[in-house]
Amino acid sequence: MPQELLLQVSPEIAANESLLYEYVAKSVRVSTKLVGKVVILKRSIDARQKAIKINLKVLVYLIDEKYTEPKIELPDYKNVSNAQEVIIVGAGPAGLFAALQLIELGLKPIVIERGKDVRGRRRDLKAINVDHIVNEDSNYCFGEGGAGTYSDGKLYTRSKKRGDVDRILQLLVGFGATPDILVEAHPHIGTNKLPQIIQDIREKIIECGGQVLFETRVTDFVVKNNEMQGIVTQNGDTISANKVILATGHSARDIFELLDRKKILIEAKPFALGVRAEHPQELIDKIQYSCDFRGEHLPPAPYSIVKQVNGRGMYSFCMCPGGVIAPCATSPGEVVTNGWSPSKRDQATANSGIVVELKLEDFKPFAQFGALAGMEFQKSIEQKAWHLAGETQKVPAQRMVDFTQNKVSASIPKTSYVPGTTSVEMGQVFPGFLTQIMREGFTQFGKSMRGYMTNEAILHAPESRTSSPVRIPRDHESLEHLQIKGLYPCGEGAGFAGGIISAAIDGEKCAMKIAESLLK
C-alpha cells in the first residue's frame, strides 16, 4: 500500500530527484534502494522564514508496490451535428468550457466570437503595442480564448469547489497543458503556451459537430414574450435558438448597453480600480525570499498584499512574476493596463495590479446612466488617462515614492509596457478619494514589505478591468436570467466569475442547467 507523506524540504532537495528519494527513504525508514517511486501530489513554497522550504504532499511506492502512470484522457465527446442547438456568445473560458460540456451532454454548441481566432489576434496585438491602433473586436480582451489567453493564464481561484477545479485542470492537461498544473499550489500555463491549447479545444468542438464563428459580433437579441429566440449579428443575420449562454467577458460594453437599451434587467456592480505597479524582479525576490540572490531552485517570487485604508480594501491583483505590462484598451480614446507572464516567468520585471475596492456610492456622479453608472465611471478614468498621456496608447506613469509625495517624476525609465509612458501626476487621473487611499496604502505596503516602497517602482495607470462593472442577474437554481427565459448570463461579464478557472466552472454549470431543463 503506497504511503502518503507531507514533507517540508529545501528547494535543492525538491528540485533534485535523487536527493528527494534519499530524503523520503529516511522519512519512511527504509534504504533508498527500496523506494520505487515518489509521486508529487501537491507542491507549494513556504517563504515565511529566512530558510525557505518547499511543502510537498507525496505518495511513496516501495519497489514491491506496483505503480501505474495515470493517464488523463478527455471525456468521450459525442458527435452532436444533428442535436439541439445552443448559442454561446463569447469564446473565452466560460464559453469554450460550456461548449465542451454541452457536447458531452449531447447538445450542439454554436460559439459566436466577435474577435479573431487565437493566431489571428496576434497581428492586432502588435498593432496596439507598436502602432497604437486599437481594433475594437480583436485585442487583449476580445478574441478566441478571451482575456486570459494573452494576458496571463493564471489558473488559481478562490473557489472552494475543489472537485470542479480539478476537473477543469485535468481537461486543460488533456488538451496539452503540462501536468504540473495539477500539482502546483498556484498553477500557471503562460501566455506563450495557452494559444495552442485554446486552438485544440476549438478543433475538438468543430470535430464533434459544433460550430465556432469568428469575427461575428452580436448586435441584437431576438426576444418574444420574454423568451429567447436567437441573436442578430453585425451583418444582419439571425441565428435562432431558444437557449443562449451569454459569456462575453467583463469588457463587452456594447452588450451591456444593448441589454440596458432593451430593458433587459442588469445591475451596477462594485469593482476595483487602481494602477499597475512594476518593480525589478530581483527586488521582489530579495523582499520575499529574504536573500540577495534567489538561486536556481526557486521560481521568481510573487507577492500578495492586502490593507484596509479608510474603510476600503487596497490589494494586489493579478500579480505577474517575471512578467510584462500590456495595453488592454478595447476602444480608441482610452488606455487600460494589465499584466502577463510567459510560462518560464523569465522577464526582468515583476508587475501587479494594485487596486482599491469601489462602492456603488462612488458612481453617483454618473447616476443618470442607471445600471451603467459603474461602467461610465470606469470609462471616464480610462479616457482621462488617454488624454493626459498624449492621446496614444502611452499611459500615465509615476515613480511610486513620487506618487505618495504628490510630485511629478522628473524622469520615467523604460518599462515593460511597450507603447511607452508619459510622466503624469496620478492625482490628475483619479478622483481625490481614490488618490488619497492609494497614497496612504502604498505607504502601508512599504511598512509590511521592506523595500517595496521605492522610486525604482513605476506606477502605470489605470488598472481598471479587474471585473465586470455590471451584474446580469440570474435565478440561483436554474441560472436563467430573472426576466428572460432561455438566457443564461455566465462568467466574468455577468459578474459570476473572476478568472480562467472560475469562468470555466461557471460555463460548465450553465451548460448542465440547460441540459437539465431540456430533459424535463
From TrEMBL:
Which InterPro entries did the record assign? Answer: FAD-binding_protein, FAD-dep_OxRdtase_2_FAD-bd, FAD-depend_C, FAD/NAD-bd_sf, MnmG_N
Please list the residue ranges annotated as the FAD-dependent oxidoreductase 2 FAD-binding domain.
86-120
Start and end residues of each MnmG N-terminal domain:
213-256
Record keyword Oxidoreductase present: yes
Q: Which cofactor does it need?
A: FAD
Does the record carry Transcription regulation as a key word? no
Gene Ontology MF: a single term? oxidoreductase activity
Q: Keywords, A to Z?
A: FAD, Flavoprotein, Oxidoreductase
One Pfam annotation reads FAD-depend_C
Name it. FAD-binding protein
Task: State the species of origin.
Answer: Flavobacterium rivulicola
Q: According to the entry, what is the taxonomic lineage of the organism? A: Bacteria, Pseudomonadati, Bacteroidota, Flavobacteriia, Flavobacteriales
